[in-house]
Structure formats: C-alpha cells, structure tokens
Amino acid sequence: MTIRLTLRAAAPLALLLAALPARGEPAAPLAADPVLSRLVEESLAARPELRRADAALRAERARIPQAGALPDPVLSLGIQNDGFDRIRIGEMEGSFTQVMLSQTLPWPGKRGLRTDAARLSADAAGATVARARLSTEGDVSRAYVALLLARDRLALLGRLEEIWRTSAGIAATRYEAGDGAQSDVLRAQLELNRLRQRRFALLAEERAQVQTLNRLRGRPLGAPIATAARVRDLGIPALPAEDAALEDANARSPELAQARAAEARAEKQVALARRERFPDVTVSAGVMPRGRLDPMWQAGVSIPLPVWSSRKQGRAVAESRARAEAEAGAAAELEQVLALRVAERRTALDALLDTVRLYSQGLLVQSRATVDSTLAQYRVGRVTFASVLEANAGYVNDEDGYLAAVADAQRVAIAAAEVSLEPAAIGAGGALGGGGMPGAGMASSAGAPGAAPTAGAPTAAGGAAGM
Questions:
Q1: Residues 132, 50 contacting (CB under 8 angstroms)
Q2: Fewer Cβ in 10 A, N or C end of the chain?
C-alpha cells in the first residue's frame, strides 16, 4: 500500500517540477514585447485625453502670431461743410471731404515680448501633450504587467489544484483501506474549495485588467487580449546610475518643462510690464479734397500721456515680478521632488534586485530541494503525505513571491520611463490568496516522524507572504 501511494503522489509532483521554469534563462525586455507595443500604439491613437491635449496645443500655437500682430489700421471718412443750407465743397475753403488712415505702433520691444510669452505658453501646452503620452504608455504597461501576473498566478493555482485533487484521491484511498484519517479527506476537500474561491478572485482580476486595457485602446471592454509572455520572461530592469537617472528625469519630465516654461513666461511678463510704461504711438495721414479748390492734406502723431497709468504700471511690474518668483519656486520644488522620486525608485529597484536574487539563488533552490527531500522521505514512509503537500505549496508560494518581485521591478521601471511624480510603491501586486496558500504552513499529522519544515516565502519587498 505504501509503495502504491508513493507512486501516485510522485506523478503530480514531478509534473509540477517539470512545469516550473529553469533559472538563468535570458529575459526579453518589456519594451520589446510585440503585444504591449501594439496595445500602446492603439491607445495612443484612441485615447481622448491625447486628442484633447493636442487640440489645446494647436490652440496655443495659433495664438503666437496673434500676440505679435500689429493692431488693425483705422480708416476715417468724413466731410466738413460751411453752413447747413447746401454743400459748399469747391466753393468755400473750409468745406472738404476727408479720407484719413491711422496706425498704432506698439513701443519697440512690446510685440517681441508678447510673441515670446505666447510661444512659451505653447511650450507649456506641449509639455501637457508629452505628459498625456507618457501617462498613456505607463497606464498600458502597468495594466499589461498586471494582466500577465494574474494569468501566471492562475497557472500556478492550476498546478496546485492538480496536486490537491491527487491528494484528495490518495487520502480517500488510504481512509477506505483503514490507513488514513477522515480528517485528511476533509482537509483535502476543504483546500480544493478554497482554491476554487481564490480562482474566482484571480479571474475577476484578469477581467478587470483586460477591461482596463480595452478602455485605454478604445475597444469593447470585453474584447479578448491574447498574451504569450510570462512575468518571468520580462526579467529585471538594470539599475541605472544615480546621476544618469536624475539627468534623464530632469530632461524628460513634462511637469518640470512646463514649470520652466511658466517661469520663463513670467520673466517675459516682467519685461513686458516694464515696457508698458512707454506709450504706444499712433501715426495718421489724410487727404481732404475740396472740389475745384486745391486739396489739403494732414499728417500727425498721437502719444498718450501716462498721467493716470504710471502708478498702475508700477503695480503691474510688482505683480509680474511676484509671479515670476512664484514660478521659479515651483520649478525648484519640482526639481527637488524629481530628485526624491529618482532616489526612491532607485532604492526600490535595488531592493527588488536583491529580493529576486535571493529567490533565484537561494529560496527557490532551497524550496525545490525541500520538495525533493520530502518526496524521498515520503517514498520510504518517514513522513506523511501532508508534509509533501506542505513542502510543495511552499515552493509554489516562493514562485509567486518571485513573480510579484519581478512585476514590482517592472512597475518601478515603468514609473521611471513615465517620469512619474508619484512615490515609489512596491508590493502592489499582493500575493496569491490573502489568507495564505492552501497547504502552506499546514501542520503535519500528529505523531508523523521526520515532518519536513515549511518552505514558505518571506515577506520581502515585492515578495509574497503566501499565495
């Protein structure tokens, strides 16, 4: 009986070990994934936020030539006549028709400053478009990684379900033969039901990510999305040098570019406010035909006197200077926040690299060795079958922790590519099953000799405390 049960238990365990990936395989970068590239392209073409930002940019660019344009000239038509009884043009020297043109010319430098300010406003709108693109790419990439993680966890859950179905059959056979306890049968059935419950949650998570991706690319929410990649295929992003990462963030941050454009625009407004103290000049010229008499002509220059506006212009300069100082402060604040976010992401990625290294070089190897050792001891009757299942569930837990760590590392890299100002957050993927993987940490049967220790995963950054 013991030999027969051992052979039945060894089959699913061997299938599980064969299904688990070998370490050291080359990983493809996330950006090279053809499915993700297609999803990003479709989202960039369909997302309404991008169209709105692009329309706002076109509007700001259309304001540039308007800002530096001259005011329209003024055409004046008139008649002057001596007396009211009849028209005396050609008879009286003071009677004539009049055609006059006048043009207001802004003080030198005003038009250029207004054009520069409008151009900087367009630059700020361009930064909004850049942010919309980066956010779209980041949203799609995060949802794609979450979809791969949910599907990988479903695959892990399927392998564990297979083992629990086998264990339920073995427990039932041993109970019928009088070699096992009824509690083993009940426990196996209970864990199978818990796995089905967890599968419902994972399927809901998978559907939610598919719906998110379909919304981003403007497709029906229920449209299927086929994926061939796995989370472990994504690998771990390289840890960038601190100076290079900060320089890249400062160069590509739309918020910082927008703040700097606003600061430069405020400086132009200060210079323009100072120029506004100087009046605009209006030149005019006209001709007065007088019929049979010689025509008259007129030319003139009009300059407003800054009698009442001088105090107002002083206040305008002070206002513009204060706004420029505020914009400069905003740009400096963004530089500090960017430096903090770059340091946070680098620290998080460094910790995740250590975590993944611990999984791949230590925990996963030890868990697999525990499974092999426990299986060998079970074959000679030194441990119960519950110990075999416990060791195997611990290995699956460690595999889930490895997947979560890789997914978290990808999220950090996505945030860096997005130049996000949000704090670095890892561990968002959680673990398979909030209440612990069925079979992980399960106590062995009372009195079982040589029970194998639990091989649960530690709660490392991005890891899993239990599937």
A1: yes
A2: N
